[in-house]
Amino acid sequence: MKIAMVGSGYVGLVSGACFADFGHDVVCIDKDPSKIERLNAGVMPIYEPGLAELVASNVKGGRLSFTTDLAEGIAGAQAIFIAVGTPSRRGDGHADLSFVYAVAQEVGEHLTTPAVIVTKSTVPVGTGDEVERIVAETGTKVRFAVASNPEFLREGAAIGDFKRPDRIVVGVEDEWAKGIMNEVYRPLFLNKAPILFTSRRSSEMIKYAANAFLAVKITFINEMADLCEKVGGNVQDVSRGIGMDNRIGSKFLHAGPGYGGSCFPKDTLALLKTAEDYDSPTRIVEAVVKVNDSRKRAMGRKVIEALGGAGEARGKHVALLGLTFKPNTDDMRDAPSIAIAQALGDAGITVSAYDPEGMEAAAPLMPEVAMKTSAYAAIEGADAVVLVTEWDAFRALDMERVKKLVKTPVLVDLRNVYQPDEMRAKGFAYTSVGRP
Question: What is the radius of gyration, based on Cα positions, of the chain?
C-alpha cells in the first residue's frame, strides 16, 4: 500500500518510518526544503533513539522517500495522513488548526485517486468534520473519506510504542474507510495489537482524554509528594503502595518538577478550551494545569531554600543537570528547567547547565545560562547541583569527583535518583522530592 505522510516532524517522521518498516511504500512530505534536504542526506531533524537507523534502512530499501511536492507525494496513495503541528494558538489557548486545514485544502485540490485522509495530528473534537467539508468544497470528484487516528507515542520510546502499541484507535464513518485503515495496520495484527474502531469524534476525544488523565496522575503524585514532605512520609513508598492496585497502575506516579513536552501542556489547555466552548467545565483538568504551572517555579524556590534562602542564595552559582522535559529527547517545549532557571536568575543566582541532547534547543530559551560540555564542567565551582532530568548519564555520577569540584556539597535531586542516606553519608546536603 502507498501511504503519504504530510508533515515530517516528530509524529510524521516516526510514523512514516515505522509504516515503511512494515513494508508499505511511504512518502513523507514537508514544505520546508531544508528539512527535506537534510532528511535526504540522512540528517534527522529531531533526536529519537533508533530513528536515524530506521530511516536509513528504509530509504535504502526503497520504501521511504521525502519530497516537498504534495501533489507528487499523494499521487496514488490510498491513505494520506495529516501529521502537522497543532500548537496552542497565541492569545486564547485553543489548538491552532491552520496547518491542518491548509493541508486539507491542498490535498483536496490535488487528489487524483480514491483515498482516506487521516488526521494523525492531535486535534479537537469536530476537526475531522471540518477537514471533510474543506476537501469537499474543493470540488474534487474523487472518492475520499476522512478518518481520525491519534498517536500515542512517548518521546524517547516512540519506535517501540508504534510497533508494539497498547492500542490503535481509529475513528471512521463508513466501511470503506474502515477497510483501508485495517489494511494500513494489518502488519501489526501479528503482534495482536488491539485496534479500536469508533466514531470520528470519539477518536478525537480519546486522545485528549488520555493525555489529560496522565497529566492528572502526574500532578496528583506531585501534590502527594508535597504532603509527604510536611508529614514525614516517603512519596516513593506511597507511589508503590497505590500503584500496586491494578485499578490505579504504577505508571506516571513518579514525583518530580512537573510535566512538560509537546503534548500534555498544549493538549490539556486545548481540552479546557473545548470544554468552555461546549459549556461543559472540566474542573479537574483546570486545576491540574494551574498546579503544574506553579510547580515548576516552586522547584526553583526549593533550590533557593537549599542554598539557605533568598538572602544567602544571591550571588551564588547553581549547576543544572538535564534541561529537556524528559530523557532521550532533545525536546525543550515547556520543560521545567526553563522556569527553574528563570526563578534562579530572578534571585540573582548564576546558572550553568549540561544536557546530553538538549542544549542547542535550550540555548535561545535561556540565554542567561552557561551551557557546558559535560556534567562535571557544569558542576565545577557550583554552590549547588540540581538534577532536573533523569538522563542515564546522571544516574551514577562520581560523587567523590563532584564533591571536589563544587564549592559546597549541596545536591537537589528533583527526580529522586539517589538515596538520601547514601548522599548524606558521602557528605552532601541532600534535598529530594517528597522524601524525608
Answer: 24
Closest CA relative to residue 385, chosen from 357, 338, 423 = 423
Place of cell 486545548: 270
pTM above 0.85, yes or no: yes
Residue of 18, 28, 228, 263 marked catalytic: 263
Residue intervals in the chain for CATH 3.40.50.720: 2-198, 199-436
Q: What is the pLDDT of residues 125-173, one digit of tens each?
A: 999 999 999 999 999 999 999 999 999 999 999 999 999 999 999 999 9
Q: Is 263 a catalytic residue?
A: yes
- Name every residue whose Cβ is closer than 8 Å to that of residue 270 and which is 6 or more positions away in sequence: 86, 88, 93, 94, 95, 122, 124, 208
DSSP class of 154:
P
The CATH H-level superfamily of 2-198 is NAD(P)-binding Rossmann-like Domain (3.40.50.720)
From CA 229, how far away is CA 360, in angstroms rounded?
35
Taking the C-alpha atoms of residue 5 and residue 60, their distance in angstroms, rounded to an integer, is 18
Class of domain 199-436: alpha beta
Q: CA geometry: angle at 256 spanning 254 and 260, to 5°?
A: 100
